[in-house]
Protein backbone atom coordinates (compact mmCIF):
# COMPACT_ATOMS: atom_id res chain seq x y z
CA UNK A 1 0.00 0.00 0.00
CA UNK A 2 1.30 3.37 -0.90
CA UNK A 3 0.35 6.50 -2.76
CA UNK A 4 -2.13 9.29 -2.33
CA UNK A 5 -4.92 11.03 -4.14
CA UNK A 6 -6.32 14.51 -4.09
CA UNK A 7 -9.07 13.18 -1.80
CA UNK A 8 -6.66 12.33 1.04
CA UNK A 9 -7.79 13.16 4.54
CA UNK A 10 -5.67 12.32 7.59
CA UNK A 11 -8.85 11.46 9.51
CA UNK A 12 -10.27 9.20 6.80
CA UNK A 13 -11.01 5.59 7.66
CA UNK A 14 -8.19 3.44 6.19
CA UNK A 15 -10.58 0.80 4.87
CA UNK A 16 -12.71 3.42 3.14
CA UNK A 17 -9.67 5.19 1.70
CA UNK A 18 -8.00 2.09 0.24
CA UNK A 19 -11.22 0.52 -0.99
CA UNK A 20 -12.03 3.78 -2.75
CA UNK A 21 -8.53 3.97 -4.21
CA UNK A 22 -8.82 0.54 -5.81
CA UNK A 23 -12.49 0.78 -6.73
CA UNK A 24 -11.96 4.07 -8.59
CA UNK A 25 -9.28 2.66 -10.93
CA UNK A 26 -9.28 -0.31 -13.25
CA UNK A 27 -5.73 -1.08 -12.09
CA UNK A 28 -3.61 0.74 -9.51
CA UNK A 29 -0.22 -1.01 -9.84
CA UNK A 30 1.79 -2.37 -12.75
CA UNK A 31 1.09 -6.05 -12.15
CA UNK A 32 4.83 -6.76 -11.99
CA UNK A 33 6.68 -7.79 -8.80
CA UNK A 34 8.74 -5.14 -7.07
CA UNK A 35 12.34 -5.40 -8.43
CA UNK A 36 13.84 -4.84 -4.99
CA UNK A 37 11.83 -7.76 -3.60
CA UNK A 38 12.91 -10.00 -6.46
CA UNK A 39 16.53 -9.05 -5.82
CA UNK A 40 16.22 -9.66 -2.06
CA UNK A 41 14.58 -13.10 -2.13
CA UNK A 42 15.44 -14.71 -5.45
CA UNK A 43 18.13 -16.92 -3.90
CA UNK A 44 16.05 -18.06 -0.90
CA UNK A 45 14.71 -21.60 -0.75
CA UNK A 46 10.91 -21.52 -1.20
CA UNK A 47 8.62 -22.24 1.71
CA UNK A 48 5.60 -20.58 3.29
CA UNK A 49 5.33 -16.79 2.84
CA UNK A 50 3.20 -13.91 4.07
CA UNK A 51 2.80 -10.72 2.01
CA UNK A 52 1.56 -7.73 4.03
CA UNK A 53 -0.43 -5.10 2.14
CA UNK A 54 -0.45 -7.31 -0.94
CA UNK A 55 -2.55 -4.96 -3.09
CA UNK A 56 -3.42 -6.54 -6.43
CA UNK A 57 -1.15 -9.48 -5.72
CA UNK A 58 1.87 -9.04 -8.00
CA UNK A 59 4.50 -9.86 -5.36
CA UNK A 60 2.53 -12.78 -3.91
CA UNK A 61 1.86 -14.27 -7.33
CA UNK A 62 5.51 -13.92 -8.35
CA UNK A 63 6.54 -15.70 -5.16
CA UNK A 64 4.07 -18.48 -5.96
CA UNK A 65 5.60 -18.92 -9.41
CA UNK A 66 8.97 -19.37 -7.67
CA UNK A 67 7.65 -22.23 -5.54
CA UNK A 68 6.38 -20.41 -2.44
CA UNK A 69 3.02 -21.04 -0.76
CA UNK A 70 1.78 -17.49 -0.13
CA UNK A 71 -0.84 -15.72 1.97
CA UNK A 72 -1.45 -12.13 0.87
CA UNK A 73 -3.35 -9.72 3.12
CA UNK A 74 -4.82 -6.36 2.18
CA UNK A 75 -7.46 -4.05 3.64
CA UNK A 76 -9.23 -3.60 0.28
CA UNK A 77 -11.69 -6.27 -0.86
CA UNK A 78 -11.40 -4.94 -4.42
CA UNK A 79 -7.62 -5.41 -4.34
CA UNK A 80 -7.75 -8.98 -3.03
CA UNK A 81 -10.47 -9.90 -5.53
CA UNK A 82 -8.22 -8.69 -8.35
CA UNK A 83 -5.32 -10.64 -6.84
CA UNK A 84 -7.38 -13.85 -6.86
CA UNK A 85 -8.38 -13.34 -10.47
CA UNK A 86 -4.80 -12.65 -11.52
CA UNK A 87 -3.55 -15.69 -9.60
CA UNK A 88 -6.10 -17.80 -11.43
CA UNK A 89 -5.05 -16.31 -14.77
CA UNK A 90 -1.42 -17.15 -14.02
CA UNK A 91 -2.36 -20.62 -12.74
CA UNK A 92 -1.08 -19.75 -9.27
CA UNK A 93 -4.35 -20.17 -7.35
CA UNK A 94 -3.26 -23.42 -5.70
CA UNK A 95 -0.23 -21.70 -4.15
CA UNK A 96 -1.89 -18.42 -3.09
CA UNK A 97 -4.48 -17.30 -0.58
CA UNK A 98 -5.69 -13.71 -0.39
CA UNK A 99 -7.29 -12.36 2.78
CA UNK A 100 -9.19 -9.10 3.17
CA UNK A 101 -8.35 -7.72 6.61
CA UNK A 102 -7.17 -4.64 8.47
CA UNK A 103 -3.53 -5.36 9.30
CA UNK A 104 -3.83 -3.14 12.38
CA UNK A 105 -5.98 -5.89 13.90
CA UNK A 106 -5.27 -9.02 11.86
CA UNK A 107 -3.24 -11.78 13.49
CA UNK A 108 -1.18 -14.13 11.29
CA UNK A 109 -3.30 -17.26 11.14
CA UNK A 110 -1.35 -19.86 9.19
CA UNK A 111 2.24 -19.33 10.33
CA UNK A 112 4.96 -19.63 11.22
CA UNK A 113 6.39 -18.41 7.93
CA UNK A 114 9.68 -18.90 6.14
CA UNK A 115 9.31 -15.41 4.66
CA UNK A 116 7.35 -12.30 5.61
CA UNK A 117 7.39 -9.42 3.15
CA UNK A 118 6.07 -5.87 3.30
CA UNK A 119 6.54 -3.89 0.10
CA UNK A 120 5.92 -0.16 0.52
CA UNK A 121 3.53 -0.55 3.43
CA UNK A 122 2.99 3.21 3.58
CA UNK A 123 -0.34 4.99 3.84
CA UNK A 124 -1.46 8.62 3.57
CA UNK A 125 -4.11 7.83 6.19
CA UNK A 126 -3.19 6.63 9.71
CA UNK A 127 -1.60 3.17 9.81
CA UNK A 128 0.30 1.61 12.77
CA UNK A 129 3.02 0.42 10.42
CA UNK A 130 5.71 -0.40 12.96
CA UNK A 131 3.29 -2.34 15.18
CA UNK A 132 2.10 -4.32 12.14
CA UNK A 133 5.67 -5.21 11.19
CA UNK A 134 6.59 -6.12 14.77
CA UNK A 135 3.60 -8.47 15.03
CA UNK A 136 4.42 -10.09 11.71
CA UNK A 137 8.06 -10.54 12.73
CA UNK A 138 6.96 -12.79 15.58
CA UNK A 139 5.45 -15.14 12.98
CA UNK A 140 8.79 -15.73 11.20
CA UNK A 141 10.13 -19.18 11.97
CA UNK A 142 13.73 -19.81 13.04
CA UNK A 143 15.90 -19.51 9.96
CA UNK A 144 13.19 -17.57 8.13
CA UNK A 145 13.43 -14.07 6.66
CA UNK A 146 11.75 -10.70 7.02
CA UNK A 147 11.91 -8.28 4.07
CA UNK A 148 10.74 -4.67 4.42
CA UNK A 149 10.81 -2.45 1.34
CA UNK A 150 10.16 1.24 1.75
CA UNK A 151 10.34 4.57 -0.02
CA UNK A 152 13.72 5.94 1.06
CA UNK A 153 13.22 9.24 -0.75
CA UNK A 154 10.31 11.11 -2.33
CA UNK A 155 9.73 10.62 -6.07
CA UNK A 156 11.66 13.25 -8.04
CA UNK A 157 8.41 14.71 -9.36
CA UNK A 158 7.15 15.41 -5.82
CA UNK A 159 8.25 18.27 -3.60
CA UNK A 160 8.61 16.71 -0.14
CA UNK A 161 8.02 20.13 1.43
CA UNK A 162 4.49 19.98 0.07
CA UNK A 163 3.83 16.73 1.95
CA UNK A 164 5.23 17.26 5.47
CA UNK A 165 3.16 14.37 6.89
CA UNK A 166 5.05 11.87 4.74
CA UNK A 167 8.39 10.63 6.05
CA UNK A 168 11.07 8.64 4.26
CA UNK A 169 13.10 6.88 6.96
CA UNK A 170 16.26 5.04 5.96
CA UNK A 171 16.37 1.22 6.28
CA UNK A 172 18.73 1.65 9.23
CA UNK A 173 16.24 3.95 10.94
CA UNK A 174 13.45 1.48 10.36
CA UNK A 175 15.50 -1.31 11.91
CA UNK A 176 15.90 0.82 15.02
CA UNK A 177 12.17 1.60 15.06
CA UNK A 178 11.27 -2.10 14.84
CA UNK A 179 13.16 -2.59 18.12
CA UNK A 180 13.75 -6.27 17.43
CA UNK A 181 15.90 -8.33 19.77
CA UNK A 182 19.32 -8.31 18.12
CA UNK A 183 20.09 -11.71 19.65
CA UNK A 184 17.17 -13.16 17.67
CA UNK A 185 17.87 -11.56 14.29
CA UNK A 186 20.73 -11.47 11.83
CA UNK A 187 20.94 -8.39 9.60
CA UNK A 188 21.65 -9.53 6.04
CA UNK A 189 21.05 -6.24 4.25
CA UNK A 190 20.34 -2.63 5.13
CA UNK A 191 20.71 -0.60 1.97
CA UNK A 192 19.04 1.48 -0.68
CA UNK A 193 18.48 0.62 -4.33
CA UNK A 194 17.55 2.86 -7.22
CA UNK A 195 15.20 1.70 -9.95
CA UNK A 196 13.87 3.17 -13.14
CA UNK A 197 10.34 4.55 -13.19
CA UNK A 198 8.10 6.73 -15.29
CA UNK A 199 6.89 10.07 -13.93
CA UNK A 200 3.22 11.03 -14.28
CA UNK A 201 4.33 13.33 -17.09
CA UNK A 202 5.75 10.35 -18.96
CA UNK A 203 9.40 11.27 -18.40
CA UNK A 204 11.98 8.74 -17.22
CA UNK A 205 12.84 8.95 -13.52
CA UNK A 206 14.61 7.07 -10.73
CA UNK A 207 13.12 5.99 -7.42
CA UNK A 208 15.06 5.10 -4.28
CA UNK A 209 13.95 2.02 -2.36
CA UNK A 210 15.02 1.12 1.15
CA UNK A 211 15.70 -2.60 1.61
CA UNK A 212 15.81 -4.27 5.02
CA UNK A 213 16.50 -8.01 4.95
CA UNK A 214 16.67 -9.88 8.23
CA UNK A 215 16.98 -13.54 9.17
CA UNK A 216 15.64 -15.00 12.38
CA UNK A 217 18.40 -16.91 14.14
TrEMBL record:
Domain Methyltransferase, chain residue ranges per copy: 50-144
What GO MF annotations does this protein's record show?
Answer: methyltransferase activity
Instruction: Cite a single GO BP annotation.
Output: methylation
Pfam families reported for this sequence = Methyltransf_25
Q: Which UniProt keywords apply?
A: Methyltransferase, Transferase
Under the heading Gene3D superfamilies, the entry gives: Vaccinia Virus protein VP39 (3.40.50.150)
Its recorded name reads: Class I SAM-dependent methyltransferase
Q: Which organism is it from?
A: Brevibacterium ammoniilyticum
Q: Read off the lineage from the record.
A: Bacteria, Bacillati, Actinomycetota, Actinomycetes, Micrococcales
Amino acid sequence: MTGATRHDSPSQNPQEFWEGRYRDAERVWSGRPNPSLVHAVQHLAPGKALDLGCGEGADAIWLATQGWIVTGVDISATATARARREAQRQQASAATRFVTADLARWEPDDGPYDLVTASFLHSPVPLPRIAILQRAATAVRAGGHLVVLSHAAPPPWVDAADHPAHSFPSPARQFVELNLNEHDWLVLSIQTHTRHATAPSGEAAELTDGVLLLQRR
